[in-house]
Amino acid sequence: MDQSKQIDVLMATYNGEKYIDSQIQSLLNQTHQNFCLYICDDHSKDNTKAIIEKYANDYPEKIKIIVSEKNLGAIQNFSFLMSQSKADYVMFADQDDLWINDKIEKSLAKMKHLEKVHGKELPLLVHTDLTVVDQNLKVLGKSFWNYTHLKPFLFHTTNRFLVQNVVTGCTMMLNRKLCQLSLPVPNEALMHDWWIALTASTFGKIGIINEPTILYRQHGSNTLGAKKFKLFKTLKDGFSAYCSKDQTLQNKMMAKQAQAKVFFERFQTQLNDNEKLMFKDYLNFQNSSFFKKRIIVIKHGFYRSKCLINCALFLMGVKP
Fold first, then answer.
1. Angle at which helices 290-300 and 273-283 pack, to 10 degrees?
2. Are residues 211 and 110 located together in one domain of the fold?
């Protein structure tokens, strides 16, 4: 990759012909232009490949195509792109959103501030809010964080990111140190953004921009969408799933445990004694007694963003 560019924007595509043109245009309209867009298409079956090839031909110094010989899936596609990057900073772009034109400029300014405070050698992550829109860009929620009742300002440490992710990949900027430390993103990662945020919270610092920098498009083909938070429905569905031993709930718990396990195995030599104990307690949670479970939650602060959800999980003894 072109090392003269300060920022690499990494885009993983698959069957994105409907929206990718407008997304690439929003990147080209950024106020900060010292970046290069790298796209890896995951063997799309529509016209996505033709669209990105045309852009690469029209903007050869700005847009590059990275080829993968096999189908990767979203997580490994982004991991592959990260492994190819050599720029000082990395950002991620989904194929169906729209970037507000000063997104890169504001993210970089926040990153420079973090570097000034903490130094460039520390793993650093910046992320922002989003505006939720429908497929025709009609605003559904001015703030994704309010729309989903997330409280990202409470999430800076490993204990919180073990149980919940509040960082949206398409809003992130990470420095070279964090990019290198996060690689490779394992298959057990729930998503690349969760894995990177967990890494940043454990070994570095996280900076937050309290304003949207993206129009986050919701449509039928989203890999992960924005679900409006409804307290009663969330509690009712969660209680029903718990009482019926719903397999989906069990699978979510097992997936988080698998991610935590592989993270601990990779980094345990770099963790202090308190961090090691925290991971061991989290991984052994389901085997603990009724009272020990509650002690573990309080001791390590294994809390989600929503207070009432925390209370419900605490009373039921469900893994946070």
1. 140
2. yes
